[in-house]
Amino acid sequence: MAGLGYEGSIGNDGTITFPPVPDEQHDLFQEDMNSCTEETPYVPLNDTQVREMYALELENKTCLEGLGYQVEEPPSEDVYIDTYNTATWWFAIASLDALPTVEFNEAVRACPPPTFFN
Question: Is CB count within 10 Å lower at the N or C end of the chain?
């Protein structure tokens, strides 16, 4: 979407958001969004990949703690799998939500979360 002129941002949980689009540009925005979705469709992870994601999140937790941050305890692997891609999905980086933006971004650069896009 950035290549089409839309300045989105990635949230602390890895979700992408865009500023409000003027009403007269809404249809074009939706067309562009649909086009991008067709080019790179969402494909959910399989069970093996979700287990690998859990291991990567644990590594991210260790990295963040190595920088001196307090990170909430992770759920068990089974709970992580059960809550994968739901509103209660656990992310190590989410423990840093309250940090000022500059400090949060520094932590992300030092310990890139596995769910963030590059």
Answer: C
Burial of 6 from C-beta contacts in 10 A (0-12 / 13-18 / 19+): middle
Based on its alpha-carbon atoms, the radius of gyration of the chain, rounded to whole angstroms, reads 16
- CB of 2 within 8 A of CB of 8? yes
Q: pLDDT tens, 34-81?
A: 887 777 767 788 999 999 999 999 999 999 999 999 999 999 999 999
DSSP element (H, E) containing 10: strand 9-10
CA 60 – CA 108 distance, rounded (Å): 10
Tell me, letter by letter, the H, E, C secondary structure of 11-53.
CCCCCEECCCCCHHHHHHHHHHHHHHHHHCCCCCCCHHHHHHH
